[in-house]
Amino acid sequence: MSGPPKDRLHGTLDALILKTLSWGPRHGYAICRWLRDTSDEAIQVEEGSLYPALYRMERQGWVEAEWGTSELGRKARFYQLTPRGRKQLAAETERFAQFVAAVSPILLPR
Amino acid sequence: MRPLGVGRPLKSRIWGDSVSDQVDAELDFHLEMLTRELMERGLSRESARAEALLRFGDLTAVNAACRKIGLETEREMRRTEYLSALRQDAAYALRQLRKAPGFTAVAVLTLALAIGANTAIFSAVSAVLLSPLPFPAADRLTVIWGAQGDQRQLLVSVPDIKEWRARNHTFEDIAIVRSQSVNLTGGERPDRLLGSFITADALRLLGARASRGRLFTDEETAEGTGQAVAVISNGMWQTRFGGDSGIVGRTLILNGRPHVVIGVTAREFRDLYDPTEVWLPITSAPNPNWFTRDNPSVWGLGRLKPGVTLDQGQRDLSAIMGQLATEYPRSNAGFDARVQSMKENLVGLVRPYLLILFGFVGVVLFIACANVANLLLARSASRQREMSLRAALGAGRGRLVRQLLTESLILSAIGGIAGIILARWAIQWLVAAVPGGLPAFGEVGLDRRVLLFSTAITVMTGLLFGAVPALYAARANLSDSLSLRTEGAMGGRGDIRNAFVAVQLALCIVLLVGAGLLTRTLAALQRVDLGFNPDRLLTAELRLPAVKYTTPEQIHQFMDQMIANVRAIPGVRSAALLNAVPLSGNWGRTNYLPAGQPEPASGILPSTQINSVSEGFFRTMEIPLLQGRDFAATDRRESEPVTIVNQELARQAWPNQSPIGKRIKIIGPPDVWATVVGVVGNLKQFTIGEPVTAQLYQPKAQVGGIFSSVAMRTEGDPMALADQLRGAIWSVDRDQPVWKIRSMQSLVERDVAPQHFTMTLAIGFALLALLLAAVGVYGVMSYAVAQRTREIGIRMALGAFQRQVVGLVVGRGLRIIAVATVLGVAAALAGARLMRNQLFGVSANDLLTFVTVPVILAIVATLACYLPARRASRVDPLVALRSE
Q1: H-type helices in B137-189, by residue range?
Q2: Among B245, B334, B362, B572, which residue's beta carbon has the most beta carbons within 10 A?
Q3: CB contacts, 8 Å: A66 with chain B
Q4: Is A46 on the interface with B (CB under 8 A)?
Q5: Closest C-alpha among B359, B330, B346 to residue B440
Q6: What ranges make up the beta strands (E) of B101-226?
Q7: Which residues share a beta bridge with A64?
Q8: By the 8 A CB rule, do B558 and B732 touch?
Q9: pLDDT tens-digit profile of B769-792?
Q10: B481 near B392, Cβ under 8 Å?
Q11: What is the C-alpha end-to-end distance of chain A, expressed in Å?
């Protein structure tokens, strides 16, 4: 494991993906689209990070993958949150909230 | 919803997709979606695709990263899946075993006894036969003896070994060794040490190191430059000298001569034979005639050059002995050398007995396997429906076999663990009980090799006894479960069970025959006429120091006075002096020539055992004097040399003539012409099993010598007079040690101890086998009866008598017994040939054994059949018909 900065980065990307999946199973492309649309194009998840992250989370048992049929009739790999993934999402969200709470008074003083 | 636990591995197996295919497909899908999105914005397909690829970044790297993680995930899931299935199987198996505590207990006990016995015997096999000797290049170490005719372990002369050293091409080194006890005096009371007279290289060949001081230099042990120095063992330094730090440089009086201690051996060093306490230069020999060519007194310790075989070494030395025989025909004619590997020398005598016992426990293990297999078969029959149900629910044949094998492996593992625990005790007992101790240099115990062996046989056992029942059970199919009758599937299974029982009984016969032949061997040995009466006979040995008793008169005076004192001990009926006590391991051999007979053309004279004894010896030993007279006080050194020969020598030398008054040349040195004054019976000198051999006695007074043994016939327990014997000797010379005070009975027992011990264990194993086989027969017959309750009920309802029902069941058992007897006797005939060399006084196809054993087996087996049969005959027909 490398130092905390990368952890933070991973953690954030993981949390975003998990959050995306919390609305229901999606394939990788849909996850990308959803994140981009929801953030008004502010967040552009790179494919080079997304897919390894998905595979990593599958290995950790946070998500499960299943082949299904996409809206265009093509076979696509759908990801679904597992109970462990849900717990992980809650933990990441909590951590993010703490981070924001700690940083806000300094960076955004009223 | 997807069913729990069906992960990607299963899906990918169903779809036939590998991880890399899936990654490719997934990323391709992504690119395709991106391309379409861009096309919607008005790009052409080509530029959309190019743009998508550009946005995606390094496709190959992402693909590789995903593939790596995916493969890891898949491997892990497979492992988890496998382990969870195994856990399931194991938990299920344990539940099944708990449900049948009787079955489990019998099976575990059977396996524990068999695996325990195998582990214990293997620990001895491992330590004695498999472990390398703790000497450098031990596989090239040899012991070299003299050989003449069928005498294969004779002493050789120092000059001969010197010639070997000078002329051979195959040995790195040949050292000279002679073990002999050494008198230690100057302390509180005289004592005897286990000594070894050597050349310096002997200790080097054995890799000895000194923990204090140093070992010998070559000069110190060479003729001409020899020094009065000594090296003592670490054990003796600790026990006798209390680890005295000033031991090096101390002077010990050894054989009456002062020797300076120059070193103490390292603690871990162990000598070859009895634990030597003191090493002396060969030049400190108690007798100067050790160095003459015509007086073989030592043996060789050699190391072959690398790459040279034992056989090449043997031929090399034999060739040299051939040269010496022509150069020194008087001393060397007919004399050869025998090169023996060190390993063979140390364990050769024990090996056949160990292997016999190893064979016995191996067979016991097979019988145990067959037994447990039969128990499992019986059980699997009653689990038929369970199996069919599981098959109907989709469990494949492989899955069922795996389940059943897991059960048997768990069973054998429990048995194995219990067996190893049993073996720990058994090994302790074994090590203590082996007569004379096992010739093992390492520790006999549960070391890694032994545990590996036990684990291996445990697993093998589990697979062996599990395989057949598992395959049978897995044959279960839906039709079996639909016809809710168990008999349908029983035909084949019944046959295989009968076959197992037959094999068990047959193997049992092999062991019983083996044990029987060993019993007959011991009985034959114990029946052997020793030629003397061993009851209430005490023997002891002593050696006068040559430096103190320098003249024959001095020696003679000591001996005369000592035997007079011994005879005066209250409770001693008679006593005599002799050189070599029968069965003590001491013996002498010489060549002779009757007067008036020409020397054989070969130059090889007839040979005889030789012993020198005082008057009264034959009376004391109760050896019958057949002709002539005993030695008398008048047969003195200065009077005419006389001799007494045994019946066998008389027969060989003067067939059909009276030997009394005949003259005979006893080859020396020096040669002696003696007149035969008496003929006595033959006796067993070296070992009880030896054939009748020529024996010749000389009066001790005419031979002299510093060594003597004492034999005395007592009124009561001979050992009770040991202290009086010591006192009688010390009243002549306060400094004279005496040792090996032993009853003749103990020597007789020692002589047959290996046979006795092997027989005891063999009988134990054979009885265990018989018990297992009987349990096997009983189990099978009980089961068969239970299966046929209905049929028996019908027969009885139709008017069959109890006797007929018993006959029906027993008859079926008798057929199995008959087949087993034929098989077993055939196998036993082959097996007995393997132990032919360990038999005595009984042939390998001894009729008595081969008749008695099947009879015993038939009786036991029939009884095991009869009990279930009788139970069957008491069945109430109504109950029987209602069953099922």
Answers
A1: 158-167
A2: B572
A3: 2, 11
A4: yes
A5: B346
A6: 141-148, 151-154, 171-185, 191-198, 210-213
A7: A80
A8: yes
A9: 999 888 888 888 887 777 777 777
A10: yes
A11: 38
- The answer on pLDDT for B202 being more than 70 is yes
- Side chain identity, residue B753: A
Task: Give the Cα separation of B423 and B117 in Å (integer).
Answer: 7
Where does B607-677 have alpha helices with state H?
Answer: 617-621, 647-653
Q: Return d(Cα B636, Cα B556) in angstroms, integer.
A: 10
Report helix, strand or coil for B653: helix
**Minimal-distance CA residue of chain A relative to B59:** A48
Q: Is B622 exposed, middle or buried (0-12, 13-18, 19+ CB in 10 A)?
A: middle
Rounded distance between C-alpha atoms, residue B538 and residue B516, angstroms: 33
Among residues B749, B587, B169, B8, the alpha carbon closest in space to that of A67 is found at B8
**Do A67 and B69 lie within an 8 Å CB cutoff?**
no
Distance CA A43, CA B461 (A): 65
pLDDT digits (tens, 9 = 90+) for B236-255: 999 888 889 999 999 999 98
Give the type of residue at B416.
G
Mutate which: A55, A59, A69, vs B, most B CBs within 10 A: A55
**Residue B564: enclosing H or E segment and its boundaries?**
helix B552-568
- Nearest CB neighbour to A51, from listed B2, B33, B66: B66
Over residues B324-377, the pLDDT tens digits come to 999 998 888 888 999 999 999 988 888 999 999 999 999 999 999 988 888 888
Question: Is there a contact between B450 and B122 (Cβ–Cβ < 8 Å)?
Answer: yes
In chain B, whose CA is at the least distance from the CA of A47?
A: B56
| Lookup: tokens for B312 | 């090449």
**Residue that wins the pLDDT comparison between B486 and B195:** B195
- The contacts of residue B766 (CB under 8 Å, 6+ apart) are B360, B508, B511, B512, B514, B515
- Quick one: pLDDT at residue B640? 93
pLDDT band, residue B486 (cuts 50/70/90): very low
Measured CA to CA, the distance from residue B34 to residue B12 in angstroms comes to 26
- Asked if B279 and B178 count as a contact pair (C-beta separation under 8 A), the reply is no
**pLDDT digits 0-9 by tens, A4-19:** 444 555 568 888 889 8
User: Are the beta carbons of A74 and B29 separated by less than 8 Å?
Assistant: yes
B259 touches B183 (CB < 8 A): no
Instruction: Report the alpha-carbon distance of residue B374 to residue B777 in Å, rounded.
Output: 10
B306 pLDDT above the threshold of 90: yes
Token look-up 């991880």 returns: B19
| A29 vs B: CB within 8 A | yes
Q: How far apart are CA B197 and CA B219, in angstroms?
A: 15
For residue B633 the two structure tokens come to 């006080």
Tokens coding B232: 């003592």
Instruction: Kindly state the DSSP code that residue B138 receives in the 8-state scheme.
Output: G
Does residue A69 belong to the interface with chain B, where contact is any CB pair within 8 Å? no
ipTM given for this complex: 0.85
